[in-house]
Design goal:
957 residues, alpha+beta, Immunoglobulin-like, seven-stranded mixed sheet, six-stranded antiparallel sheet, 19 helices, elongated, Papain-like_cys_pep_sf
Length: 957
Amino acid sequence: MAAVEKSSVDKMSSSMTSSITGMGLGGITGLATALNALSCHCEQQITIGGMPTNYVPGLSANYNISSFCQRPGQTRRWPMQRAGPTAQFRVGRSPSTGLQRRLKYSPRNSPNTQYSHTLICKLADQNERRRRQDAMELISQSFYSQLPLKVELTEFYSRDNSKEHHTELYDLVNDNVFPNPVLRRGQKFLFAVRFDRISDKQLDIIHVVLCCGPKPSVTKGTRIVLPVQWVSPPTIFHHPRDVIGSGIGMSVGLPRMQCDVSTITTTAVGTTASMSPVSSVRETNNYNVRRSSFGNDPPTVQPSPLSPHGAVDRPILNATPSAYGRSQQGSVQNLTPSIPESEKWDISIHRQDGNTITFQVTIPPTAPVGLWNCWIQTSRLGQRDNRHDYKCDEDIYIIFNPWSREDTVYMENEESRKEYVLNDQGKLWCGTWHQPIGRKWIFGQFDDVVLPAATYLLERSGLEHSDRGNPVRICRAISSMINANSDDDGLMVGRYDGEYKDGVAPHAWTGSVAILERFLTDGGRPVEYGQCWVFSGLVVTICRALGIPCRSVTNYVSAQDTNGTFTVDKFFDKEGNLVPNGPDEDCYDSCWNFHAWNDVWMQRPDLPQGYGGWQIIDATPQEEADAVFQCGPASLEAVRRGEVGFNYDTAFVYSELNSQLCHFQEEDDSDWGFIKMASNQQQVGRKIVTKNPNIEDEEGDSDLLEITQEYKPTNGSAPDRMSVIASSRGFQRLQQSHESNQSDDDVTFDLMDIETVPYGQPFDCSMNIQNKSTEDRTILCILTASSCYYTGAIASRLRRAQGEFIVRAGQREILKLHVTSQEYMDKLVDHSMIKIHAMAYVKQTRQAWSEEDDFPLHKPKLQIQTRGPLTVGQDGTLVFSFQNPLTVHLTDCYFSFEGPGIQRPRQARFRDVKPGELVTYQDKVLPRREGDIHVVATFSSRQIDEIFGSAVIIVKG
């Protein structure tokens, strides 16, 4: 505020002036507020004898002086409607009934009467101005000499903070143009503010306000107000007469907290008026600053104009508490016992150099994660309405912290954190249970598009910002937002029928970054297309980017029970043909060759002790939960124990792993038209795998880690299946149709496993039959080969053999089916899988048997090499090669490849490929960082696809 001139004082509002009268010099502190809230009321000028009736020497004639006509303790007078001989006051509104009557009933009603009224107002005003001038002499002129602090520049030291927060790999932090801080909750961070002048500890008030979401709220923990109070509270007036009339005048001048409820303490003469913050005050000498990566010098890379040097006294702190992202307000007595100190936001001054102050802020381990904004609010003591607000340009990303013991996603093992949080590449497992195929995938969680995309997906999910400190709610929202099959709000559309002409085939993706970037550049339009393993890779990317430990898991022979019977039912007619959807057309059960989902690591305070650790979430749209395609987090331990009553979707996950496969064949003699067939096929959940965190295998699959024992007990302690079903459904459903056929099984059947079959080569299917009885048996056998989707659905029948023959007592027979490449080449679909189905029926004993087996055709590997060594900042060349295994031309060819630090996701068109040709393609790259870089590439064409490969490329600095 500029220095107050005498004329400015004269123009002070009459209401403010009279309110000070009689207050005593103890009310000087209230004068600051009064001077800052001037208000004037104008009315039409009325003259008497050439002089305005409201004229007061020294004041503008435009201001109504009737408000000065008050005495201490009286209310403000209302202005007159008219002046002169016929002047009237509004009946009932004048505070002086006697004056009204004298003006109304005086026989002369002369102008002198009005003059007297004006005169007394003027004299009273002059007296009050003299008293006010006495009070002005007691106020330091520096109080009015300056405006509030103004922010000139801010610096969040993104690179330095990232070292302490384990976020130095994020591209947003290392951006050369405009770096953004990525911070983990439960830790401290530094940021500096340069003001337009040196701050005055006695008069300047500073608030740091952090906001999350469109409607930040203090009570919900999404608006955090951190007031900076100095260790030595300011003393404004030191005058003996300050004790006179202390009361309202003293309290008006005290600094008021912007949002927090505080306790005000009034002290005696010579001391200061202090404020007790809501949170308990920590002494400065007990506050230890962690400075392992912060020196006295600014960052060496891209130095900031802010260069704080020299320490200052640290302030007493006031923090807005938060628990799981929710803040609570109240008195000191109510908050101190209920809110742990570790769950409060905190601020202190780290150092000060001239007009630059470096602050240190502590993020509680329960803070909501996501995008935050920072405001700097400054004002002067006693001038609350004269405030300056400055919004920092930086977007602040706050994420989970697996390194903090107070965070619910804390992971103790350092090697596990490196794999499940920091590793930006891995493998997704496809194929079949006896022929797993690992596919390299670039998660790319540190790419500059990932955190913005993840933040936007959380906004689209509708999850309240106040709930985003809870990893359970976050992971459930992620499982619903990855897929976009039920609406247009998700990230990716799933498709399984092989028709991808209007999008990108799932097998053409090499990582998550290209998908997320397309999602952002298309304005949030869902990307086409993906399948379960693509969804799983995206979940890993987003969870690790947000700081949640995550791994991709593949369940081989995964059940999808659609009617809640914990069975997967298939029906066949007398000829061995599949009856779609069952005899009543209401059975949509299926058994996927493999299904990929995710495990996320967290504690579960909402469940009994012992159910934390890995939690299962599934982003593939299979079944709706709460009217949304979402699944989990379900406690892995609860699934293993068969305790399916816990949240979330534990029963559904249990059925994927433990459902019973039931095959039924049409039979005229059956009471309900079908009989159950015996099967040698292994149970659902045959093998569960993930990537081994201790092994990296670019060429083979030695980095496969089987974790079946974590999901299903193998030591005989497995829970009784029917008891689990009964507990989950409230009753035990036992159907006669699901009971095994009570016949003497004296003939054994076995469908032989098929070894690796190269793409383009013929194969044989074999079924062994052994008659263990002492009598001949007449057996009807059906053997079918079909191309199928990995979901188990049949695409096309390739070949079928059927016959009835006699097997002599004690003899063995082998039934074979030969399939040539010409019979399957143009009928294959995704993953090039073949399903073999065998059925047998013994006429003498009515023994029925059925079994299925699936296997993939193996395609050539795509080789990746470099032409010469690669160096950072210098052009290099990558070479991709493979041999066409087909005897036909390949058309509509293209390569897709990426390597973090070498090449962003790219797709390149390629010419037609001749039959049997050795294909070679090379492309220029410009390495941006040194070290071992993982490169992943795929080749696709109309005739063959899913030719993929990976390699580790060494880049020198």
